[in-house]
Specification:
The complex is a heterodimer of chains A (227) and B (300). By secondary structure, chain A is α/β, with parallel strands linked by helices. Chain A is 33% helix and 27% strand. In chain A, a hairpin with a 2-residue loop joins strand 4 and strand 5 (72-73). Chain A is globular. The two termini of chain A are 15 Å apart. Chain B is built from nine helices and four strands. A four-stranded antiparallel sheet of chain B has the order 2-3-1-4. In chain B, helix 1 (19-54) runs antiparallel to helix 9 (269-296) and helix 7 packs across helix 8 (257-264). Classes of the chains: A alpha/beta (227), B alpha+beta (300). The structure holds adenosine-5'-triphosphate (ATP) and magnesium ion (MG).
């Protein structure tokens, strides 16, 4: 499902022009997650968790090494197919990335509309998932009118509304209280049981112990534990 | 993380939405004038050319003197020769009155009174081949010193002039198209920079480059078409006015100013003007598409 083969990554140092390279952020990362698997991704801040997730959801290219996502060699994929593949990956970004000019409803509807789903289907799925994350009465609210935790729940709803084959969540409980975090985990484990491969980056050790699953542990750009 | 464009000067707002149509309107206005100029010069040149090339003027000095054979006057001999000359038709001797009228600006109202030895002037129509050099040679046998001139050389000059006018107009059109395309590209880039976050997010959610590009392209096309249509419409009164000015040289006489203008506009212009918004649509659409697709390539 996901396979990293000696993956290295340096971010281009953007401010010093293209080509100028900074230090390695990922250094020889190797792992596999089988289809339908669940992994926690942990490690100190700056270890490279978000960077690793970006490679999975095709927002970065590795500097070196090979990545396979859903059986596709990521470096060989056309732009068109990359877009189609992204539609099958649900992403909860660490910084939410909601569109500020769209309501909660329209933000969640966006991936379905991009996939050209029928509007009645969009309506049914979007209202259901927003009800599930406890936002049934905030459908029309703009992101700015929502609390941090509410925004995060909109971001989660957007990630799962299309029933993705792969769910990538970057610190999805950072702004949630324990009860909301619990609800989210119920949602995620339900999806996982239905066959979605899941990888969740978190600093929340209580959550990790409450939902035991194999751990990918990072430090300074390397995997220090895998399994 | 994507590169952040810091734009403390707010340069991206240099090209507001209203600016694109206004600038495109200016471009379209210029294009309308250039097209009209090229078409009008073609029409006028065609008229002038026929008239000029066909005009044959013959001057016979000392018309009353005997010709080479001594059997007739030089004028009669020339007239007789013209009757049978191939390519020459309807020769007509200008009367003394007509001649006086022609010469009045230079010699005053009664040239005859000055006792100047005026040549006889015959006008005719020349539709033979070539510039008609042989005419003078043939007429010089009975009446040496006879001059004959066709307008063929003048016509060639008119053709050359028209050609250069059309080249200028074509150059204007090319420049207008390039500047128009560049304007659309600039406005599109400004739009992309403003909506960078949004585009990155939509791209991440699986939008195709084509989806994003066609959104920008339809907007750019709409703005460009609006501008071009406005520019072409604004050019119309100016063109009518110019055509009214040019009417004495082209259209039929005895018409009012507006009728002059309408009659004076080359018919092809009524096809060309609606083409300007069409051209703007093509240029706007393709420029925006290229710009957006090029920009999106920077996203992974
Ligand atoms: N766009 C970027 N350009 C350059 N360096 C970057 C960029 N994004 C992240 N980095 C650097 O890469 C390293 C890893 O960052 P990353 O965001 O992957 O860490 P993380 O493990 O997700 O941290 P956190 O737990 O705080 O979210 C950091 O040192 C960071 O400064
Ligand atoms: Mg992170």
């Amino acid at each position: 499902m996901i396979r990293f083969d000696d993956v290295w990554l340096k971010y281009r140092h953007q401010d010093r022009g293209p080509g100028a390279l900074a230090r390695d952020v990922l250094r020889g990362v190797d792992f596999k997650i089988p289809e339908g698997g669940f992994r926690w991704l942990t490690g100190p801040s700056g270890a490279g968790k978000t960077t690793l997730l970006k490679l999975i959801y095709l927002a970065e290219h590795p500097t070196q090494g090979r990545i396979d996502i859903m059986g596709t060699h990521a470096a060989r994929i056309s732009r068109r197919d990359a877009a189609l593949l992204r539609r099958r990956i649900g992403v909860v970004y660490q910084d939410f990335r909601l569109l500020a000019h769209l309501s909660a409803y329209d933000n969640v509807a966006l991936p379905m509309r991009l996939a050209r789903r029928a509007e009645h289907q969009v309506h049914a799925d979007v209202t259901e998932i927003l009800r599930w994350v406890g936002l049934a009465n905030r459908l029309g609210a703009l992101p700015d009118e929502l609390s941090g935790g509410e925004q995060q729940r909109v971001a989660i709803a957007r990630a799962v509304v299309g029933r993705p084959k792969l769910l990538v969540a970057d610190e999805p409980t950072g702004n949630l209280d324990d009860e909301q975090a619990g609800r989210l985990m119920t949602l995620i484990t339900a999806l996982n049981r239905l066959g979605t491969t899941v990888i969740v980056a978190t600093h929340n050790h209580a959550l990790v112990s409450a939902y035991p699953a194999p751990l990918l542990e990072m430090a300074e750009g390397r995997l220090t534990a895998h399994g | 993380m994507a590169k952040r464009h810091t734009d403390p000067l707010g340069l991206h707002s240099v090209l507001e939405d209203w600016m694109l149509p206004v600038l495109v309107a200016a471009m379209s206005f210029l294009a309308a004038l250039a097209v009209a100029g090229a078409l009008a010069s073609t029409v006028l040149a065609a008229q002038w050319q026929n008239d000029t090339a066909a005009a044959l003027t013959i001057q016979v000095p000392q018309p009353g003197a005997p010709d080479a054979t001594g059997n007739a006057t030089r004028l009669a001999a020339v007239q007789a020769a013209l009757q049978t000359m191939p390519g020459v038709s309807s020769p007509r001797l200008l009367s003394a009155d007509a001649l006086n009228r022609l010469l009045a600006p230079w010699l005053g109202t009664d040239a005859a009174a000055l006792g100047l030895p005026l040549p006889a002037v015959i006008t005719a129509t020349w539709n033979g081949p070539g510039p008609g050099d042989a005419i003078a040679a043939a007429l010089n046998k009975p009446a040496p010193g006879t001059l004959a001139q066709t307008g063929v050389q003048w016509a060639a000059r008119v053709t050359a002039l028209t050609g250069s006018l059309q080249t200028c107009a074509a150059a204007v059109l090319v420049i207008v198209a390039l500047v128009g395309g560049a304007l659309v590209a600039l406005a599109t880039r400004a739009g992309l920079a403003q909506r960078r976050e949004t585009i990155e997010i939509i791209h991440g959610l699986g939008a195709q480059d084509g989806d994003i590009a066609s959104r920008f392209a339809s907007r750019a096309t709409a703005l460009a078409v609006t501008g071009a249509a406005a520019g072409a419409l604004l050019a119309l009164p100016v063109l009518l006015w110019l055509a009214a000015l040019a009417a004495p040289f082209s259209g039929p006489p005895q018409l009012s100013g507006l009728q002059h203008g309408l009659a004076g506009l080359p018919p092809a212009l009524w096809t060309a003007l609606p083409c300007l918004p069409l051209a703007a649509a093509v240029i706007g659409w393709s420029s925006a598409q290229l710009t957006v697709r090029g920009w999106l390539r920077k996203l992974v």
